Amino acid sequence: MEPKMQLVAHYDSSVDQRVEDTDVTTNLRSWHGRSTPHHRHLKSAHRILIIVGWGTLLPVGVVIARYFQKYPMQWNEWYSFHIMFQSTGYVLGTIGWLIGILAGITSPKQLHADKPDRILGIIIFTFTTIQMLAFTWQPKKLEQGEEHYYRKGWVICHHFLGYVLIALIIAEIFQGIKDQRHATNWKWIYVGILGVLGLIVISLEILRWVRSKIFGEAIRLNSNMYTSSP
């Protein structure tokens, strides 16, 4: 009877050990997947910098280049402010993107959930870097009326990539907001920002159209006056 009792005691202790190991593993997994306050702060900083940098300052830079270069409003300092907004937006957005990568490294589950957001982030970072480098690559302006075809091609590519980037940035921000705490609040904040930018763009576009009509009509009247004179 004594050997059997020892065997039972040995079996019971091994079962307890396995249960204890399982509990420890479960607790570790639970702790690893838990969202700590530090992690939440990183995610909030990531989203704020993305919205302010890529989502707001970059579009403002585009608006300055489109509407204050020549038409409908000519502003001599437009290029300096265009560069300032684009550079600041690029730096802030890139820092926010890097913070988002660091915040997601500690959570494999979160990394899998953020996959579309991360892919869009990589594409946006690549394209914005190309746009920033394009400022140093642009061909020099020639005399009036002698614009080189290389510069025309550069201008077309620069403008096209800029508009594509704005669409990708908006998509990336709304994609990332879905997985944030208080997602509805984040969404309406950015909708408000887009609404303000949209109203500014619509107003400037209407002004551009009205002034083009007035300018075209003035040219037509002027040409008619000269052709009708003896």
Automatic annotation (TrEMBL):
Subcellular location: Membrane
Gene3D superfamilies (alphabetical): 1.20.120.1770
Keyword Transport among record annotations: yes
Domain Cytochrome b561: 8-213
Keywords on record: Electron transport, Membrane, Transmembrane, Transmembrane helix, Transport
Cellular component terms (Gene Ontology): membrane
UniProt superkingdom: Eukaryota
Protein name: Cytochrome b561 domain-containing protein
Taxonomic source organism: Morus notabilis
Source taxonomy: Eukaryota, Viridiplantae, Streptophyta, Embryophyta, Tracheophyta
